[in-house]
Every structure is written in structure tokens, then in C-alpha cells.
Inverse folding.
């Protein structure tokens, strides 16, 4: 799994690509922690358009990130999940905690 | 029910084998001509079952995991994932959404996702002896699809 970034006006966008399972999740959490410390963003957008696969390990990562953003008074949302990650997000019901938006690409 | 085809796979419970297990399950399921969504559901359920073995059954060791896939008559795919790890003390609690003993790295949604993505889920576990998860999903043929 790879994480690409874009930062502008206090908003960090993290582009997650590849597959996010338990094997990848710990490294992804560490990378995201480092990015949050480096950029200190007000808002975090997690773009999942390039994520081919995600299981409940990804849910744990997203919940943890949203908690971190809330602690610092920031906002977080998920953008453009592909079909399989979207089904996992819907089943876990985290769209009630973290907004999911689909932007026209 | 009669098995039309089957494979058995045995591998060490290393997290790098999660991707291998779901890719193997997807490749085997292809003979049923599933939709992309069905294939995604099968891969997700396998990933959850195998991750449970690695994280919970063998928390301090790399133990053996056996996965058996069968195609049964009527387009039924059956997946059994077995470990010989610590077992589950309270099965009912383990299957509750958001319950986890895995800390912040786990969401407690593994069994919920397996249940939602498959038609049937059976879990047999004996503390100290191991756990077997058996899941079934019917894959509709092209002619049956809307």
C-alpha cells in the first residue's frame, strides 16, 4: 500500500492506493501519524479512489484517524471509495461517524 | 451435499499470507463466474477469517492455517478456515459488532463483515484447541441474474 499526499490551506489529502489489510495496516497507521505530525492539518481528507481492497483493518485505521482529528478540533472525511471498500465501510456503519463523499473525477 | 470441486491450502499464519489466501480463494471462485461484487465479498470474508487466525488464534507464534474451498452443487461456494490456536472463550461475545480483544489496531467488525458478506457462517471453537470457521455463499449463474 502507498500513501500520496497533497496539502493546501490547512487541508491534508491522503491518497491511499493498493490493498489495505492487517499486514499493511500497522505501517499505514505509522505513516499517517507521521504525516499528521508533519503537516498539522486542520482537516484530513482520505481519498480511497486508488484503494483496490480493504478489510476491517482499514476500518480500524479510519476510526483511529477520525479520533485523532477530533481531538485537535479538526474534521475528517473519506472521498471516492471504490466498490469493495465502500461495501466494507457501509457494512461497518462508519459512515455515521465519518462522512463519505463521492466527488466527480 | 456433493462437492463438485475443491482445493486445500495450508500456510503459516504470517500476515503477508493474507493477500495470498484471498487471491487463492478468488481464483478458485472464478469457476462459478461471479460478479465483481461477489468476488469482492468472497475476498473480504477470507481476509477477515485468516486475519482472525493470525491476530487472535496465534498472538505470540506463527501457527498453521488450513483453508479448504469447495464448490457444491447448485453454485454454492464453501470456505473453511481452520487454526489450532488458543480458541475463543466466549463465541457469542466475539461475534458481536465492535467487540475486540485486539486493541486500537482492530475494529471488532471481522465476524460482522463475514456474516454480512456470506450467506451462512458457522464457527466451532474449543479453547486451547483451535477454531474452524465455515462460510457459504451461493453464486448465481449468469442466467439467474437480473
Amino acid at each position: 500500500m502507498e500513501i500520496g499526499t497533497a496539502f493546501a490551506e490547512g487541508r491534508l489529502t491522503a491518497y491511499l492506493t493498493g490493498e489495505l489489510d492487517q499486514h499493511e495496516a500497522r505501517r499505514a497507521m505509522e505513516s499517517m501519524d507521521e504525516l499528521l505530525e508533519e503537516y498539522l492539518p486542520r482537516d484530513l481528507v482520505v481519498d480511497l479512489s486508488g484503494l483496490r481492497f480493504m478489510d476491517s483493518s482499514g476500518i480500524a485505521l479510519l476510526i483511529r484517524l477520525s479520533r485523532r482529528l477530533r481531538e485537535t478540533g479538526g474534521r475528517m472525511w473519506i472521498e471516492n471509495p471504490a466498490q469493495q471498500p465502500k461495501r466494507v465501510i457501509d457494512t461497518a456503519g462508519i459512515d455515521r461517524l465519518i462522512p463519505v463523499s463521492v466527488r466527480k473525477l | 451435499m456433493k462437492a463438485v470441486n475443491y482445493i486445500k491450502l495450508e500456510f503459516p499464519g504470517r500476515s503477508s499470507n493474507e493477500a495470498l489466501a484471498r487471491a487463492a480463494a478468488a481464483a478458485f471462485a472464478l469457476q462459478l463466474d461471479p460478479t465483481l461484487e461477489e468476488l469482492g465479498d468472497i475476498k473480504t470474508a477470507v481476509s477477515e477469517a485468516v486475519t482472525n487466525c493470525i491476530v487472535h488464534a496465534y498472538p505470540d507464534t506463527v501457527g498453521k492455517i488450513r483453508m479448504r474451498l469447495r464448490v457444491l452443487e447448485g453454485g454454492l461456494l464453501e470456505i473453511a478456515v481452520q487454526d489450532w490456536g488458543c480458541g475463543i472463550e466466549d463465541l457469542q461475545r466475539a461475534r458481536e459488532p465492535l467487540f475486540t480483544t485486539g486493541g486500537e489496531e482492530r475494529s471488532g467488525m471481522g465476524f460482522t463483515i463475514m456474516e454480512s458478506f456470506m450467506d451462512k457462517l458457522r464457527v466451532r471453537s474449543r479453547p486451547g484447541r483451535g477454531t474452524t470457521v465455515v462460510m457459504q455463499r451461493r453464486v448465481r449463474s449468469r442466467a439467474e441474474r437480473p
In short: The two ends of chain A are 22 Å apart (CA to CA). Residues 22-39 of chain A form the longest helix (18 residues). Strands of chain A lie at 2-8, 11-20, 43-54, 75-79, 100-101. DSSP finds three helices and five strands in chain A.
